[in-house]
Design a protein that fits this description.
alpha+beta; 27% helix; globular; single chain
Length: 105
């Protein structure tokens, strides 16, 4: 049985982003966006997560994150993507490459 927990990465007035962990292993990410009538989610999970586990995660996100936000909503709509992580990139990852290119390397 999975032991899912959510680790917040970012929060704005109308959205939240969480890393999804099973124990100490990252199994996905959920981006949640609140509007005046609906809540939208983009759930990305690793390749090994089953359809049943996806459904369990959506219920858990709804119960633990969406409902606790106490936002008015008529529906919670979730788009699900499945694949493998290629990494996390930031400006720093590209700054060194640009410097190398301009120096003739």
């Amino acid at each position: 049985m999975a032991d899912y927990r959510f680790q917040r990465e970012a929060r704005t007035p109308f959205s939240e982003v969480y890393n999804i962990l099973d124990g100490d292993r990252s199994v996905g990410r959920i981006d949640i966006h609140f509007t005046s009538s609906h809540v939208y989610g983009s759930l990305t999970v690793v390749e090994s997560v089953t359809t049943e586990e996806v459904e369990e995660l959506i219920e858990l996100v709804d119960d633990d994150l969406v409902s606790s936000a106490e936002a008015e909503r008529s529906d919670f709509i979730v788009a699900v993507y499945q694949g493998r992580s290629l990494g996390t990139y930031s400006d720093e990852d590209f700054t060194d490459t640009e410097a190398d290119t301009t120096n003739g390397s």
